[in-house]
Amino acid sequence: MASIKERKDKNGKTIYQVQIRMKGCPPQHGSFKRKTDADRWIQQTEAAIREGRHFKTTEAKKHTLGELIDRYIRDVLPLKKGAEQRQGAQLKWWKQQLGNYLLSDISPSRIAEQRDLLLKGITKRGSLRSPSTVVRYMAALSHAFSIAIKEWEWIEDSPMRKVAKPREPRGRIRFLDDEERVRLLESCQTSSNTYLYLIVVLALSNGMRQAEILNLKWSDVDLEKGRIILYETKNGEVRQVPISGLSLELLKQRDKVRRIDTNYLFPGKIPNKPIDIRSAWDSAIKRADISNFKFHDLRHSCASYLAMNGASLAEIAEVLGHKTLSMVKRYSHLSETHTAGVVSRMNEKIFG
After folding, report:
1. How high is the pLDDT of residue 274?
2. Do residue 105 and residue 14 come from a single domain?
3. Of 137, 162, 187, which closes a domain?
4. What is the separation of C-alpha 264 from the centre of its chain, rounded to a whole number of angstroms?
5. Is-contact 203 185, C-beta < 8 A?
6. How much is the pTM?
């Protein structure tokens, strides 16, 4: 709501003092010599506030979105280990699309337009870009805006707040049944890649991500205590992974013939870089006649086996390295028997 008051300056000339009050925005003030200018300013300011384009600070009119993204990539992204390459590419896409606009002109409608463009985009594999991928693009930009608000004081509010995220599909649960697991392990044993079998066993038995396994160093492995320490994880926290049974035995065997020119468990042709298993993995899946299965589904398989063997959701989350239970609730239906048993034992104890 806007109000205009006529006042006289020290020279006796009329000036028009304007105040705009709108919910969710600090009061805006302005003084004008002509009422028509005051009316025009009211219309423009109210429209900008409603569309999320209005910023009180002058910093938003000094910097472009491209400058914001450049500073974020330079100063913030290097601190986010494991995400630098992926989020850097996502932020550069936003810069290419909207980088020339001043921050004061970045509206929710402009971002929504680019969100829709992302959803219609075709990936390098020739498929339509998924809603989950678009959400990650938006999350990268949203965090950049958050830093600009809290630390740099370039803007007062994020235009991302008013932009709806695409609805993501339910989390994928594809795990190997007993026959598929046997076929896959046999296929990996016959692979020309001598590392593949151990890599797949580790993924199935411990639920580690592909990048976590391939980047393992012998200094991360404690064969005596039967554990692996992951120092670089997706959520940035150090995680301890217990190893036992077949995976521990295979690691002990590998330790006897390990290469002395590198600290990597699974080095590539270049000693200081991990091996690339994409070709070997694809061939193993094909030989095992397993369809609709990705390497990451080995992690789902591990979680599913844990659930079916009585592990609680909290225990599964701890093994996989999730901070919350939300990511492992997809496995809840697999642990119904365990949950029923817990309730049954509790009732028997308190009621007899």
Report:
1. 92
2. no
3. 162
4. 26
5. no
6. 0.59
